[in-house]
Amino acid sequence: MAVAFSPSSTVTACALRGGASLLGSCFLVLRSRRAGRLQSAVTTRRSRTWCAVIVGSTAVPEASAEEGRHGRRSSEQLALPPELVDELVEEALVWCSQHGLIVGDKNHPRSGKAPGVGLLHAPFSLLPMSFPKFYWDQALELAPLFNELVDRVSLDGEFLQQTLARTKEVDLFTKRLLDIHSEMMELKKEEEIRLGLTRSDYMVDGETGLLLQVELNTISTSSNGLACGVSELHRNLVRMHERELGLDQASVLGNTAITQHAGALARAWAEYNNPRNGCPVALVYFRAGYSPIDYPSEAEWRARTLIERSSAIKCPSISYHLVGTKKIQQELAKEYVLDRFFDNKGDIKKVRQCFAGLWNLENDSIVMSAIESPELFVLKPQREGGGNNIYGDNLHETLVRLRKDGGNELAAYILMQRIFPPASPCYLVREGKCAKENAVSEFGVFGAYLRNKDKVIINDQCGYLMRTKAAALNEGGVVSGYAFLNSIFLT
Ligand SMILES: Nc1ncnc2c1ncn2[C@@H]1O[C@H](COP(=O)(O)OP(=O)(O)OP(=O)(O)O)[C@@H](O)[C@H]1O
Ligand SMILES: [Mg+2]
């Protein structure tokens, strides 16, 4: 089966040969060429605050502790002697170059166009950060529940169509996805083998101490490779400076995201169980296709439809893709909606506990609150890939305009409670330079779900992504230039 895709994407058919269980057939991998897409122990469990602090014999307590947004002492920072910072930065930069912890350099004209040209170390936090085991356990427990939820919602075509019906009227991209979805419903197309590679992102709310979900990604869940790389980087730095840092390298949590995700892809291929080489395609993995610019002409939409109609396993299917939209996230957070998908009340409670405030814009009292206090909300369109959300003054202006226009355009967005995680000073390295920033973090848990008819073959968490960014920033992507890769040790 031949598949065309966007001119901004490379279509790579990788025949897997030689591996004992991977003989024959092939994966089809869709990757975007845009570089941007290819993408302390001073924690108290009681207050559940956490911070990027290394306790060490040469580390010196800082004079002042950071105050949280609500006046609460959120964390304490121990400063490193400047000469140790310099040494660590140099070692880390060399390590990144030697071990491929690199991204495309947006300032280089040939970056992303020629292999091996225009590469730069990925932005990283110099040191790992503490993370309460309490949150870790909670996020890991949630991972299989969210995987299962994605699968169940994906099977409820009516729910997807109805929930997105108003959005469809004003958002052409969502409409095109929904059109493919309705075509599959009309064809009564069933996906017997379903594969989801997910990432559920969370922030700790400084006010309540609750772990709140930012969003659930079901397409092109990125940074699994970078996340594994940064924990290896930190382990290596800690190993070389165990005494000065007062940390044991084994305490830096390892990350299995890349091997587990690759393993799930391979297992899905095995379930497809057609060892002929070359044809048909067993599995299509989308590393692009989540953004309107990935579909510059009708050819890409035809390709997406062709893939959806095919017998290949899609990662994700159109249904899994739609489940990851912000609008579905908002609908699932409404009272009793989860009851449609889960029988177990305990599971419903656990999942609901991590939901932040989410609203549609038909709720005028919330729209008015957001206009009055835009700093407490995030306005989100149905987009992926970072840089699309609207904050602060822009949020105020956008809502005032949309309300005045009085049209349906409000339905393109959802409103979300803005989460304010506790901030603490962090050493952050970008483009070879280290700066100490007052920073907040976002914690993502990768997941994998594989099902063949009635049999769940994989439903697991697959490691983590810790991203740290300056507290003053709104967005949080690593490759998009906002956040820094980080790793954790549990306290
Ligand atoms: N409710 C919120 N409170 C605080 N920050 C938020 C909130 N929602 C989003 N953000 C910030 O904006 C970033 C992007 O938001 P979101 O994950 O919703 O968009 P996305 O385009 O789907 O991103 P991604 O490319 O990571 O999938 C988040 O990583 C986070 O840093
Ligand atoms: Mg997303």
TrEMBL record:
Q: Name one GO cellular component term.
A: cytosol
Instruction: List the EC numbers from the record.
Output: 6.3.2.3
An example Gene Ontology molecular-function term: magnesium ion binding
- Record-listed Mg(2+) binding positions: 215, 217, 384
Q: Which InterPro entries match?
A: Glutathione_synthase, Glutathione_synthase_a-hlx, Glutathione_synthase_C_euk, Glutathione_synthase_N_euk, GSH-S_sub-bd_sf, GSH_synth_subst-bd, PreATP-grasp_dom_sf
Q: Does the keyword Magnesium apply?
A: yes
What does the record give as the reaction this protein catalyses?
gamma-L-glutamyl-L-cysteine + glycine + ATP = glutathione + ADP + phosphate + H(+)
Which residues does the UniProt record annotate as the domain Glutathione synthase substrate-binding? 272-323
Which Pfam families does UniProt cross-reference here? Answer: GSH_synth_ATP (PF03917), GSH_synthase (PF03199)
**Residues the entry annotates as binding ATP:** 215, 326, 380-389, 391, 416-419, 442, 469, 475
Q: How is the cofactor bound?
A: Binds 1 Mg(2+) ion per subunit.
Q: What are the binding positions for substrate in this chain?
A: 199, 249, 467
What's the family? Belongs to the eukaryotic GSH synthase family.
The protein's name in its UniProt record: Glutathione synthetase
Q: Which organism is it from?
A: Miscanthus lutarioriparius
